[in-house]
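User: ok so my PI wants both of these folded by tonight, can you help

Assistant: No problem, let's get them done. Here's the first:
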Amino acid sequence: MVYGTPEGGRTALPDALPEQLAPPVPADGVTLTLYDQGPSLVRERRTLPLKPGLNDVEFSDIAVKIDPTSVSFVSLTDPRDTLLAEHHFRHDANGREALLARALHQVIEITLDDGTRFKGELCSERDPHNPPNRPPFAPAAPDDLILRLVDGQTATIRQMRIRDIRFPESTPRLYTRPTLRCLIDSARDGLQQLELAYQTQGLTWAAHYNVQLAATGRQFDLNGWATLSNNSGTTFRDAQISVVQITERRSPTPPSDDPFAANTFRRSPSRFGDLPRETRFEQAEARDLPRIQHYPLRRPVSLTNGETRQVELLTARAVPAYTYFVYDASPLFENYPPYPLKKQNEGQSSVSEVLGMLEFNVNALGADLPGGLPAGTVRVYQETSSGGALLLASESRLEALPEGEKVRLSLGRASELSGKRTLKEFRPSSRMLLEETYEIRLRSRRADRGVRVHVLERLFRWSDWEILSASHEYTQVDHAAIEFKVDVPARGETVISYIVRYIWPS
């Protein structure tokens, strides 16, 4: 037999497996696959009686925002000889207007507020002066209803005067529940388990993380939530749910242990313009990631229409963490300019705040997340040293990260630390050579202990640079930056200085 060729109007399928080899039949129910963007996927299994020949079957409580062109059908009982011949979606609006539209050209009985009764054929038409998309029985029409009475006369009745309307039993059925009517061609008699799948709008999800950092900064607890939103127009009971996140592919980044080499924090844009540097940061880079990440939720969930619900995505306790501080006052840039920056005031800033940072490894969460950590919103709370209060340290956007990746989150401004970056000397030696000396002062008002501060310096004027001398050891982060890691004593000060030389072509 050649699979996929017509055979009496049906598609030829392989013969069924012996019963002992056939896979177990899944139970009736609904499975949802929610995407963070675009339509989501609904798959339902229902067991219904069918007769040989064509069967008119109704699947009620379908999502109102279904895409009917995406419907897929299979009989799990008899996939070879049970086929979907045609289908169409029905959902009639509720209310008087919907009933009147269904009763057009039929005899109805109307009772007015004063008890007057009219009985006749409903003959209302759209006012030709109204827009074409106006409902035929919109209440704003001057003479809403037109009746041809049983005595041959014609009456116009305003809807605002109507107390009640009685419709004939022969009025076409009103589909008040979203229903997919299917014409199923079956070759056998009896119960069959049918599977229906389709795409729909109105089902979305997002990840949210709450981090509770200990006062020592050495460990934290994390609760990760999948926030599910259902605006599809129907309710799903005890659904098995998987959430899918689509991420852009990015060029690979060389591995580095430096906190500035990956997950660089940049200021979030604001519609109010540039805001002072505070606690709102977002990660602007991520490693090379798979395009689709899939996360099945652990238990069935019921989603009522119009509801937003948080369901556990992951939970981690006593996760080891590393906290440190960052002072970054040098100019931020992505690429060198096409010409050297030779003016003395270029690249100067008055940034004084020192930022706290939290770092941990995705694998330390101990969660079964084969796709890594989904992108989402992260809120970091930190206990006070007395343990009596919990403070919101920061809220940021976390980009998707694969397993084994380091996560770096801003803890906001460290109020007890400050920094000052000063250009001490500016020496243009010739048209092609420039030397300058920078001084960075770090102060701490903390009385309990000293802290370690990472200082990032970007050599921004030109790509051909050389460090002539430095007061402290440093490492080269990339082709355009160096980093100092220095200790600042309690209630003390540390001063960093270095000399850089730039050389450019004539």
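One down. Here's the second:
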Amino acid sequence: MELSVLSYQPEAAEVSLLRDDGLGRGDAVPARFLAALGMTGGEGMTGGSSERQRGTDWRDAGGETIIRGPVAGRRGWPVIEGSDRRMADNASSDPTTIRVGAVSFLNALPLTHALDTDPDVTLVRAVPAELPGMLERGEVEVALVPVIDTVRHERNWTIVGDGCIACDGATLTVRVFSRVDPADVTRLHVDCDSHSSVALASVLWREKYDRALKTVPFRAADATAETLAECQAVLLIGDKVIDPPLGMDEFSTQIDLGATWKSLTGLPFVFAAWATNDPGIVERAAPILAAARDAGVARAADLASEHAPGIGWPTDLARLYLTAYLDFTMQERHRRGMARFLELAGDDDPQPAPSEAVVA
């Protein structure tokens, strides 16, 4: 297991986290911060056990990260300030700049922060699921898109440079919340903001549990305890994991999809990458995006500290998230992981049809 809860120390009120890289490096995070993720626990709590624990606990089932326990019922935290700039706001921009589309989540800050002030870039932000359409319509020339969308619908888009949002183990903010054991999940209400996460859930349940999931659209902002009572399992991503809808405390099991992918394949998982449908722009855009990424990664801890209070994240947790959980450079192992995912995903599209949309 790449990132797991190792021990709970009530007297110290902290939980130790270890990235299993063979070097024994670990970080301690105050337990009150982890409470937002349901990692509150009680007496006798341990991590790394291959056997299920009783009561409120964590367990490592064959390498996957599964967390049992209540989650906080907070909601309504905003996205990064200024992140809702759209195309209309940039209509008068210099036509010689590169129009770049990006997401508004905390996890994109190391890739995008320096682009905000780059004179060669006009930055437009949207949720991940909107960016592929913006790229197809020519509203942006390069976009940070879910990797599954680079090949869907007979596309053959070009990956631009090596910037990405990836994990090599637990991701913290892409999770399935379930009322039943993972092997028994058949119907999954999904947060459609990330196409890659929906496709990943479908792949994992098919490959690990031999289950063909039925996916149903889920709008976390509209969820109530009553509508959640009808859900067997729910996929949440991003800030919605830190700020879960009211009623999520009824879901006893959490499955981190990044950790489950790592246990299944031994490879990192790439959620999003810079892509274009105009290969001619790659030579110009790639160095700009790489320089912005290098500058952002170098300042990742500071960026977390600066932006966490405004979006409701505990500062220490945000710093750990950007500096330990996520990778922003696509190395060879990440490329192999991405290729493996696209191979397993195949031509099947697990995205729910718009006509199936429900308010959950």
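The chain has a mean pLDDT of 76. The domain at 73-360 is CATH 3.40.190.10 (D-Maltodextrin-Binding Protein; domain 2). Good luck tonight!
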